[in-house]
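Section 3.1: Structural characterization of target chains.
Under the original work plan, the team committed to producing a structural model for every single-chain target entering the pipeline before any wet-lab resources were allocated. The record below documents one such target. The sequence was received from the expression subgroup and is listed exactly as submitted; it comprises 83 residues.
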Amino acid sequence: MQTHFGSTSKKGRLSLSINQQLLDRLEPYKQQVNFSAHAEQLLARILEEFENRAWADRNADALAAHGKDIAMTGLAGAEFDRI
């Protein structure tokens, strides 16, 4: 999954409603924080979580079958495990 989007990528606009008390507390730091960049990173992480969950849901049957196969036959190469 791609979590990093290039800084030269085309940008879009998004309108957000943020708690006013939070905005008031952030006010002194607005010159030190790139809110757009932080929001972009957060949204990328949220997207990655959704995509990972969707992948796991789509592949749940295959993952369960694979787990059963391992439980019955063991892992390939386990005979070489020296621990």
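Residues 20-80 form one domain.
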